[in-house]
């Protein structure tokens, strides 16, 4: 059992959380009001996205055998704070007469903004405290809102499903922070950094709700909504078949790997995001899904181990393979499509140069921002756990006694040994 | 293993259930018909509420280590019967030419009516038989429909998200029944009255689907639908941050408690219910959520143990803290808001006096009705389990042999002892 | 532990899957385009059906203690391939100017088509390889599309909730294949062909999402959409009460059985399918649900064991009782209703003769098609597992070491025995 939580921690976390909530309420009191034109049209879309954020991301990360409470619980904490902070940060760029208007669409955008912090959380999973994650959420959503404004209002690029502004941004932000927060003590695989049979089953709940509602994610703020739905649906389906095929192919015994099925099947949704609502025809969407599946499987299989051992980047959930590389792929697809076809959005012709600028700025801001945030999170004051207590809920949670199958097994062994010794 | 289910039980339960179903079908044949004006507009809202009732309430109660089958199964039984009975009981107050019209809105209201019985089930969880629960459902929904009529048609009070008529009603009905059904033998904590790691994970499925779809619950029958959505969304978010902060603060080692995260995070949805569709501004909704979180956490931490030991009220799921106190808080918020602002609903000005009357009548009818129902359920004929078999699925279900982690542990110990004895 | 997967298998599966995906993309490139009239009206309905296919069917089959990865994983594989193949097979019957138009409605129909393969998968669960299942999906959806065309365009019969064309078709197709693939070695119950406590809990996730969204399934392509929703809702509710009653009644100790609650509660949704959007009045829908519940419970209790022992049909999930018999019941209900009332659909009067023809053709095509498919799947080349490795994920998946509670128990026993032997 890990040692008791530093008791000073409880005051630090509680005071930080309460302080942030008070600040948010005061800012809401000053700046936020109902939109005068409240339509419920987008509400089913909003609910799908909402389920993705809390159930999808939350359960996807429960694959670790002893970190399920933290995965689903801190995911909820981050998202519940982020959706309040996101309204403010995104709203400050679009104020009218000193007021931020809230409606279903701005709630969708706020939910979106939390996704960046949740993706970064995936890279850092098991190695950061809730105090650190609240600070990261605060900083990342602030920078996300700036980059999003740059991409959509300055460059006037399209990124309707947010391949670049959410997925690539969240991934490289988290990876840069992970690099700064590198733990040499975790070079050898930590005994808790693995799944059990049931933790893998819980993670599939997350996978499926993400997979199913991804068309809503990519189409929620699209002009050509049904086109975005159709493209995303087929990209995901094609990606899934390829993921199964490659998962078997890259394994020496030809067996499927749950980590690939849980993650790489979703890469098609990420990669088709930027051009989801463009008329690229379903077969092109499928082609994008196929490439995304290939890139993602190969990333998990060959790149993640190398990044951990050579590049000092420990990426717990492999967000580089699910959000990073497929996000860049989405950005590139946007460049290619706008180079081939003339597409107009909001009265502006989309150009490959501006799409490339959007991708470049996103990566640059994410990496610099993530590294700076990582440096801030390194302040010892913030309650980072020791290497030994990584990936273990009991550092932060009251955990029921017979907590995991693994523990019983060990306690059995212990009794056995004591018994032998006594003879 | 508990002793075999009394074989006479199977006839009692089966005959009661079949009899009730026959009565319902006959009454439907006589009274119920399709509404002539069938619109599918509210169907997505209905589905969200439907998910809350069956998945949300069902899985929220699966936290007990050996009572998951009963939690999710009896929840389904109660809700499936209640939604039929609710149409009749609510419909009798609104008949036109001797007919009850069914449409999506009346189906939502029927789903709502089952929530009262499911909340009361939470207080009684693990201590009552399915026979008792069918009778409770029958009686509670009948009284709920009367009180709802009183509140909305006689007092013309507003309670759009049903803080009073569902949450407070269901909680105090269940608590009054629990008082009457008090079991002195359970004064010391029952060994099965606790969670395991995976049962807590299953419960989080319930928590998240309740949390996510609560805006649909509070807005389903609202005039100002989007206002109700926005207020509920922010109340829940603020409540969640406060719940995490206080969960750490009230624990001596600063650790989070799953029971608080599973339950108190939802109190914001309950408390904002009464005035969800009033223009209270998002920051006020957040403020209500904050108070609800504080009340709920403190209730779980300090009040529930006292109620069990001093007041002879054993509240298994802590419904007093999730539905009871936040429900009263919602009623009070309604009184305050109608006192400050002039609000009109259905052509009537809302008055604090009528809001207070609604809250008072709800509490009175719930407590008297619950106590009477408890007295009826006490009839030994109805198959209440012995104290020893409380909180144990195997009293009512065929359970797979290696049922819980705990059992293996014990059986291991047993073998061990036998082995030592044999030496 | 099962022996290593035949390494040649990985090439066979991967090449087959990649080849199929390439063929699909080429066919999409040639034939498929966006519909010119893209409406998002049906999108919430689509999402409900989508959840049923991936979460509902997927988790419903996770009840086996060591086959959860395969259940939810291969379910995803089959559905992701099937929804692409279904668009093509259904589309070839409705081409306009050489093109298949994709819109939300055709995506719903494609999701529907995958349900047939998933139902057949339920009969074969644990006994077939993913190679076999891809081939079955290909063949079954092709034949399904032909039969559906026959039923709806030639016979002009109604089957709005697809009691016949999906449920009965999928069930008898799978049962005929199971007959051909009969394994004498599994006559005695396989040790892995059973559930654990938590696998039964996971299966309830599937049950509930199927139960909740079944009204969307039956109404998705209905003209009288809300009528179909109401009828399905009440049929399911009545079926659920009857299932609980009979589950207790048929057990010698009066206990409920999870397999019945997981499955027979859904039979009301199947049986009301054919006449879901006809004005049969809610009480008739309930009556259909009651009969479906009775038939399904009795089927699970008495028929399935006989079919396995006498008829050489091993039906792992009991699809005969959930989809087969209730599907026929739905077909018969359609005959009866069209005989009693004059109903018109698409300008044609529905006749009992045509309804009967639809039922007959469906059963005939399903049984012949399933038997032929079973014969093809019998080719040894396709990687069928040995009897011993049936119902075991580790034949196809990398499985975490301490995989199930059961294993620990056994490994404990093993150590113990070795220990005793050593003394």
Description:
The structure is a homotrimer of 423-residue chains. Chain A is globular and about 60 Å long. Mean pLDDT of chain A is 92; it is low at 403-423. With 423 residues, chain A is an all-alpha fold. Chain A has helices spanning 7-31, 43-60, 68-91, 104-124, 130-154, 163-180, 197-219, 225-250, 258-263, 267-271, 282-310, 319-340, 352-377, 405-422, and strands at residues 32-34, 100-102, 344-345, 348-349. In chain A, the strands form two sheets. Chain A has a two-stranded parallel ribbon with strand order 1-2. In chain A, strands 3-4 form a two-stranded antiparallel ribbon. Chains in contact: A-B, A-C, B-C. The interface between A and B is large, with 66 and 62 residues.
Strand-helix topology:
Three copies of one chain form a homotrimer.
Chain A: H1 7-31, E1 32-34, H2 43-60, H3 68-91, E2 100-102, H4 104-124, H5 130-154, H6 163-180, H7 197-219, H8 225-250, H9 258-263, H10 267-271, H11 282-310, H12 319-340, E3 344-345, E4 348-349, H13 352-377, H14 405-422
Parallel strand pairs in A: 1-2
Antiparallel strand pairs in A: 3-4
Helix pairs in contact in A: 1-3, 2-3, 2-4, 2-7, 3-4, 3-5, 4-5, 4-6, 5-6, 5-13, 6-12, 6-13, 7-8, 8-11, 11-12, 12-13
C-alpha Rg of chain A (nearest Å): 22 Å
Mean pLDDT of chain A: 92
* CA-based shape of chain A: globular
* Helical fraction of chain A: 55-70%
Unreliable stretches of chain A (pLDDT < 50, length at least 5) are: 403-423
Biggest sheet strand order of chain A reads 1-2
**Overall SS class of chain A:** mainly alpha
Chain pair with largest interface? A-C, 62 and 67 residues
Give the count of helical stretches of chain A: 14
How many β-strand runs of chain A? 4
How widely separated are the two ends of chain A? Answer: 28 Å
Proportion of residues in extended strands of chain A: under 5%
Order of helices and strands of chain A: HEHHEHHHHHHHHHEEHH
Largest sheet of chain A: 2 strands, parallel
Give the assembly state of these chains: homotrimer
């Amino acid at each position: 059992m890990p040692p008791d939580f530093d008791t000073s921690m409880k005051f630090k976390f509680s005071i930080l959380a309460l302080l942030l909530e008070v600040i948010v309420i005061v800012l809401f009191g000053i700046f936020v009001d109902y939109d005068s034109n409240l339509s419920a049209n987008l509400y089913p879309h909003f609910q799908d996205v909402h389920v993705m954020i809390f159930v999808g991301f939350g359960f996807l990360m429960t694959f670790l055998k002893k970190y399920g409470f933290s995965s689903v619980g801190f995911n909820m904490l981050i998202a519940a704070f982020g959706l309040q902070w996101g309204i403010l940060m995104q709203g400050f760029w679009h104020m009218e007469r000193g007021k931020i208007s809230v409606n279903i669409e701005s709630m969708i955008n706020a939910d979106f903004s939390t996704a960046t912090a949740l993706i970064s959380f995936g890279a850092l999973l098991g190695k950061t405290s809730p105090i650190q994650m609240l600070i990261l959420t605060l900083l990342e959503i602030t920078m996300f809102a700036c980059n999003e404004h740059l991409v959509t209002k300055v460059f006037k690029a399209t990124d309707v499903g947010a391949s670049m502004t959410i997925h690539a941004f969240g991934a490289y932000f988290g990876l840069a922070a992970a690099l700064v927060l590198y733990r040499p003590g975790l070079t050898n695989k930590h005994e808790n950094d693995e799944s059990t049979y049931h933790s893998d089953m819980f993670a599939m709940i997350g996978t499926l709700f993400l997979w199913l509602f991804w068309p809503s994610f990519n189409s929620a703020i699209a002009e050509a909504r049904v086109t975005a739905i159709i493209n995303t649906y087929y990209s995901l389906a094609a990606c899934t078949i390829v993921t199964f095929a490659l998962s078997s192919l890259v394994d020496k015994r030809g067996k499927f790997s749950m980590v690939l099925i849980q993650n790489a099947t979703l890469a098609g949704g990420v990669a088709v995001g930027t051009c989801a609502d463009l008329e690229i025809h379903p077969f092109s969407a499928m082609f994008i899904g196929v490439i995304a599946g290939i890139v993602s499987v190969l990333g998990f299989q060959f790149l993640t181990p190398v990044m951990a051992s050579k590049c000092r980047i420990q990426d717990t959930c492999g967000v580089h393979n699910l959000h990073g590389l497929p996000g860049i792929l989405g950005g590139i697809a946007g460049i290619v499509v706008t180079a081939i076809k003339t597409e107009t959005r909001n009265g502006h012709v989309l150009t490959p140069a501006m799409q490339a600028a959007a991708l470049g700025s996103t990566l640059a801001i994410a990496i610099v921002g993530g590294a700076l945030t990582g440096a801030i999170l390194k302040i010892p004051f913030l309650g980072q756990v020791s290497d030994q207590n990584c990936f273990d809920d009991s550092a932060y949670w009251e955990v029921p006694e017979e907590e995991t199958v693994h523990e019983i097994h060990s306690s059995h062994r212990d009794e056995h040994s004591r018994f032998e010794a006594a003879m």
